Amino acid sequence: MKPRFLLTPDQLVASARVELPAEAAHHAVRVLRLGAGAALEIFDGAGRRATATVLSTDRDRCTVEIDAAILSSTTKSLLQITLLQGIAAADRMDWIIEKSIELGVARVVPMLTQRSTVKLDPERAKKRHLHWQRIAVAACMQCGQDQLPTVDAPLPARTAFAEFAEFAEFDHHPAGLSQRLILDPLAPDSLVQTVRSLMANELANAPENDPVTNHTTNHTTNLADHSSWVLAVGPESGFDLDEIEAAKRAGFKPVRMGPRVLRTETAGPAAIAALQTLCGDF
Predict the structure, then answer these.
(1) Residue 47 CB: number of other CB atoms within 10 A?
(2) Element at 18 (helix H, strand E)
(3) Exposure string over 15-35, b if 16+ CB within 10 A, otherwise e
(4) Angle at Cα 236 formed by Cα 123 and Cα 124, nearest 5°?
(5) Are residues 16 and 84 in the same domain?
(6) Rounded (5°) CA angle 22-76-176
(7) Where does the chain have alpha helices with state H?
């Protein structure tokens, strides 16, 4: 796999000669030791990519020539998954963001919860936000994702739940299946049971010819192209009861991940992988 670097959409122009951003140039020249003639890949974070060739390097500067062909991404997930993640301590949050993006998540919303051990004042929250955005870029460089996921600034859990409660008729979105789930080890239903039931209901209620996809809806893959999922995961000690009730009032369905209690850094990626297996692109 060629080394990958992020440019802005206005920089990704066919046959253009551009300088890599300072941090990317440093990585290309000082870490990867790329020289003139080396092949690499450029993506713009908006769903496009192109091959490029290194023209010249000078210390921490790297000039490349973009190929004449600009390609549309083939790596975007079929599912539109938003992860609401209770902020985890140490490098666990970095790991969660990185692995979630590798698995195809479209948006990550870090949440401040009652049981969060991490306390962020405004200045520290700003620094962590910038750090998590860099983690997202690095994850896209590694996994081949051309659509740069959004990483929001941290916000209180109840604010995050309320944001998604504002979607009228969210459970029957005209563009396809849309659902909100919150992981709760005490929930009566498992994630797999819930997702299978939701997909079966959507298929049973769908018209024979879906005007959105213009295809018959006798396969879950047709629905997957137009389905969105919001997944809420607590921090190390989970959500408190008031937060779970707030999420339920906002339309989130409690689900559990099997008979074992998963760590916060395991739960989100495991749930995303399950969604991708049940109705996504795995």
Answers:
(1) 17
(2) strand 17-19
(3) ebebebeeebbbbbbeeeebe
(4) 5
(5) no
(6) 140
(7) 22-26, 92-102, 122-143, 157-165, 191-205, 220-224, 241-249, 264-279
CA angle 220, 105, 67 (to 5 degrees): 100
96 and 148 inside one domain: yes
Q: Same structural domain for residues 54 and 95?
A: no
CB 29 within 8 A of CB 60: yes
Q: What is the pLDDT of residues 73-103, one digit of tens each?
A: 999 999 999 999 999 998 999 999 999 999 9
Question: Total structural domains in the chain?
Answer: 2
* Last-in-domain residue among 72, 104, 131: 72
| Type of residue numbered 281 | D
pLDDT in tens, 241-251: 999 999 999 99
- Round to whole Å and give the CA distance between 251 and 256: 16
Question: Which residues in the chain land under pLDDT 70?
Answer: 166-177, 206-226
Distances (CA, A) of 103 to 140, 184, 192, 198, 231: 11, 21, 17, 22, 14
Q: Give residue 15's domain range.
A: 4-72
